[in-house]
Amino acid sequence: MIDYTKIEIRGLYKKFKQGDEKAFKALYTRLSGSLFNYCVRLLGDWHLAEDVLVVTFTKLANSNLDERGNLKAWLYRVATNACYTLFRKKKTELKYYEQQLRSAVGNPGPDFVKELRIQRLLTELPEYQRIVVVLKFYERMTYQDIADVLCCPLGTVKSRMHQGLSKLRSMVKE
Amino acid sequence: MKCSEMKNYLIDYVLEELDSELQIQVNEHLAICKKCRGEILQTEAVIDSFKDSARFKPTPGVYGKISEQIRVAKPERPRIFGMPRSLVFALGAFLFGIVVTRSIDAIIVNVREPSSIEVRQEAPRKVPFSDTVEFYSVPAKNLARI
After folding, report:
1. What are the residue ranges of CATH 1.10.1740.10 in chain A?
2. Is A22 an interface residue toward B (CB < 8 Å)?
3. H/E/C letters for each residue in B81-141?
4. Does B10 touch chain A (CB under 8 A)?
5. Which CATH class is domain A1-92?
């Protein structure tokens, strides 16, 4: 009996490519939560975030990745690109997010208000700054990891982060 | 450390991701700089608002959607002479192309060139006796002198 929780994500991917479907399920269990949360924060929409998740994992299943590459960064890159496509099609609407949050969280208590406030802050940021902020504050990625996800130089990530943070600071002050 | 350098370390300092040496330098600077202390407090306020926010999970049906769409990795295709089938087919097509072009070339050459070589002998050309012509073409007064 294989204990999939002890295998690294690279190993799981390799096992899946050899035909082990359980390895894919383990990969999904391990990565879907953070990826979904990332997409919700970027898009502000549960349903769209789920669509992005389906696209991302379907691409993973059909991919043939190099063994040395960073699988997590690749997954986040695919999800980010899918989110960019949706950004172009549709602007984030906070009303829709509020409805979905109400059905997800339940009672509109202090947590509900806080969540709405956070999403409002994120929605105010331009997409390219929002991505960096979410990856840094929620996913706790290093600047280098973020640069790998976005395929851009380290300096660009840092400057986007600082721009985003100064905007957030001014918004929090208000 | 200067205030301009501090900007690079604000977030990492708040997230406690700085290495110990840098952390000491930042602490030393914060002890003497009121402006940077204020910036740190503001950054902390922003990061704290993100810290304890809810983490959402996808609905259970999402995996079903994914597994509907994926195809499980197929076993490797059979090989021919130890090479992938596609490579063997590509090589075969390449060789076939060479054979076809060579044979077409041979056919074209055969059509253009006749089987027997005809040697035509031309009659010798009559060359005018240029000196004579020149001699007789001189003016009459010069003829008289000769």
Report:
1. 1-92
2. no
3. CCEEHHHHHHHHHHHHHHHHHHHHHHHHHHHHCCCCCCCCCCCCCCCCCHHHHHHHCCCHH
4. yes
5. mainly alpha
Q: A125-174 sits in which CATH class?
A: mainly alpha
A-contacting residues in B 34-53 (Cβ below 8 Å): 42-43, 45-47, 49-51, 53
Q: Shortest CB distance from A62 goes to which of B51, B70, B75?
A: B70
Q: Which two tokens stand for residue B88?
A: 């063997």
Structure tokens given for A126: 């331009």
* pLDDT mean for each 10 residues of chain A (174 residues): 79 84 88 90 86 91 81 91 84 64 63 77 88 89 91 91 88 76
Token pair for residue A47? 């349903």
Show me where the domains of chain B are located. Answer: 3-51, 82-112
What are the pLDDT tens digits along chain B (146 aa)?
Answer: 788 888 788 888 888 888 888 889 988 998 888 888 888 888 888 888 887 777 788 888 888 888 888 765 455 566 777 777 888 889 999 999 999 999 998 888 888 766 566 667 777 776 665 555 555 566 666 666 55
The ipTM value here is 0.77
Task: Find where tokens 């056919």 sit.
Answer: B107
Contact partners, residue A161, CB within 8 Å, separation at least 6: A129, A132, A133, A136, A143, B11
Q: Locate the chain A residue with the closest alpha carbon to B42.
A: A169
User: Where does CATH 1.10.10.10 sit in chain A?
Assistant: 125-174
Tokens of B72: 């499980």
CA dist A135 and B13 (Å) reads: 17
